[in-house]
Amino acid sequence: MSRIASVTTGPYAPPVPSRTLTAVSADGARLHVEVHGPDDAPPVVLSHGWTCSTAFWAAQIRELATDHRVIAYDQRGHGRSPASPACTAEALADDLEAVLAETLAPGEKAVVVGHSMGGMTVMAAAGRPRFREHAAAVLLCSTGSSRLVAESRVVPLRAGRVRTWITGRVLGSRAPLGPVTPVAKRVLKYATMGAGSAPHRVEACARIVHACPRAVRHAWSAVLAALDLDHGVRQLQPPTAVLHGASDRLTPPVHARALAAALPNCLGLTELPGIGHMTPIEAPELVTGRIRELVDTHVTGAGPVRIKEGA
User: Fold this and answer.
1) Which residues is 305 bridged to in the sheet?
2) Cα→Cα distances 16→34, 55, 281, Å
3) Does Hydrolase appear among the keywords (predicted)?
4) DSSP SS3 for 237
């Protein structure tokens, strides 16, 4: 890859995995998978979003891998996973099942976390037997199940056919993103992050997004534009928490509220003021803390730590 795919220092520099492996999906697509942390620790599976990679989860991996087995994989065509002609929601579900099969023992339970397209991956897999076998609980971050282009606020126009048409052309553009320049970072920050996002966080996101091949970016944009996974939301049986940035332009909070209303076992919706679409990078401690809570409650059975009054 010709561009630097991630920052190389600081909290968003990707940690070195304990081991790497390859999961083979139903159609033969090969997926790069990383495992971080002790092999006997409770597992967490991380599924990243459109134009991202395992590097997107660096902050979560670094904190969780001290006492969790963190499994992160590159979606097909992203990061170190080769591109595939099959770009569909069904392929995303196949890929997640392949990762679960490769990394978890039969019947082993994990918390599954999906950000943006990664959350859509979870919804697409909701009815799959292997997903139901392994998912103890789910965290959906900054995602939606349908009407992604129509509801997007990236283009600052009133909602309607004109805005939808322009948004589709912008998000589906085949144009190269070019190098990570100050102007490019301002554009990315406006579209995907909160106004108060620190420069080092914007830099981390820009490195990851700009490293995604434009053909891959375009192919998956078409899938997302036509996506309708409302049925998958209704099939998502594990306890599911929803976390969303209140300033998200790419998938505005209307999506999170719809998810919370439709999920059969919703644990609640957390809206983060001032945070945009890139919640794991913009609010790393809050995302990591929510994952820990889900593991403690639904995997290890330890439950959240509570301090007695007067202690």
Assistant:
1) none
2) 9, 10, 18
3) yes
4) coil
